[in-house]
Amino acid sequence: MKPKLLEIRQGVLSKNDRLAQELRARFAAAGVFVINLVSSPGSGKTTLLEITLSQLRARGHAAAALVGDLATENDARRLARSGAPIRQIVTDGICHLEAAMVASHLEGWDLTALDFLFVENVGNLVCPASYDLGESMRVVLLAVTEGEDKPLKYPTMFHSADLVLLTKMDLAQATEFDREQAYAAIHAVSPGVPVVETAAKKGRIDGWLAILEERAGVKATPVPGD
Amino acid sequence: MKPKLLEIRQGVLSKNDRLAQELRARFAAAGVFVINLVSSPGSGKTTLLEITLSQLRARGHAAAALVGDLATENDARRLARSGAPIRQIVTDGICHLEAAMVASHLEGWDLTALDFLFVENVGNLVCPASYDLGESMRVVLLAVTEGEDKPLKYPTMFHSADLVLLTKMDLAQATEFDREQAYAAIHAVSPGVPVVETAAKKGRIDGWLAILEERAGVKATPVPGD
Questions:
Q1: Which of A100, A104, A187, B143 has the most neighbouring CB atoms within 10 Å?
Q2: pTM of the entire structure?
C-alpha cells in the first residue's frame, strides 16, 4: 500500500469515526440499543436476524434492521416477513458499511420508538473491522462450518468483538467441530470476550436473546398470542 | 468513497495490472500453470489445496503453492506436510493479494521445474476480485454450508471466475443444500462458467484434478508406490 493512499484512507476513517460518534450520541438519546453484526459471507447473519426479530417481537420489544450487501435486496425482502421495519443498504461494490450509509438510511425512522436496531454488515472478515457505525455492541459470528482457526487468521475483526456468536451449532458433529480449539482461538485474540452458541435454523438462540435484553436493559413482556 | 481516493486506487490497480501481465508472460515462458484460489474465509481452500498437492504429486506432477493470510503462518506449515514447496505471504491486514506480493515471494524458485503453481488468496469474496495476479485460471470456491445465494450477493467475484468449485459436498444433505438453486445463482452472474463438485475431506476431487490436467495440458504419469 502506498503512503499517499494510506494517508487518504486514514482521513476517510477519521471522518467516519466522527460521524460514528454523532450516531452513537443520537442512539443513546433515543434509547435504542444498536448491534453491528459482522462475519464471513454465509455464517448465518440473515438467518439469525430473521428469528431474532420475530422472537424479540414476541417478547414485547420493538426492533428494526438495516442490512448491507454489495448487491441485491434479497435480504431485506426475506427479513420483512418478520414484520419489523427493514431497510437495505446496497454498497455497490464497497466491502463494508460506513457510518454515513447508516445515517442516510435512518431518515424518517422514529428511533425513540425502537428498543433494538440491528445493522447487518457486508459479509467480510476484514474491511468492516475498521469502520465504527456508532453501535452499542459489535457481534462477530463464526459458523462451526468455517473452521476453528478463523479468529487467528482474522485477528483484527475478532479482537474488535464485544461478543462472539458460534453459529450453526447443529452442524457441529457433521463438521467434526472442535469446540475447545475454537474457544482457545477466540480467546487468544480477544481474551475474556463472551461467547454464545446458537443454532438459529433450529430455533436455539436463547442465550443470545438473554444477552441482548441484559445489555439493552430491557425485560421480556411476552405479547399474548404472538 | 471520495473521488480522490478512487483515483489513487485506480492508479494502484493499473500498476497491479501491468505487473500481473509481466508475471503472466513469465509463467507462460516457464511453462507453469498458475491457479488463483479465492473464496470466503472457511470455504475449504487449504483443505482442498492439501489433498490437491499430494494427489498431483502422486500423478507425477510438480506443484508448489503460495498461501496468503492477514496473519499467521499456520497454512504454510499445514501444507508443507504434502512435500511440495510452500511459501506464506502475510499481508499484515490487507484484504487481498497483489501481483507484487506474488512476484516477491517467487524469488529463488525455479518455475521451469513446476507444472502447477497455486496461489491461495486471502479469504474474502470482495477485495481479491479486482487484483489480477497473472494467473492462468481463477477458481472461486463456494462451500455448500454458505448458502446458495452467495453468487448473487458477491457478483463481481463470481463473474471473474474461470471455474467454480462447489466444496464440502459431503455436507450437502446436513445443510439442506439446494443444488439447482446454487447452479442457477452461479450461472445468473457468470453464464456458462464450469462448475465442479468436490468433497476434499472425503478425498473426492477427481473432476477438479481432471480439469487441472486438461487446462495445463499435462497427463498423469503415476509415480509407482506413491
A1: B143
A2: 0.92
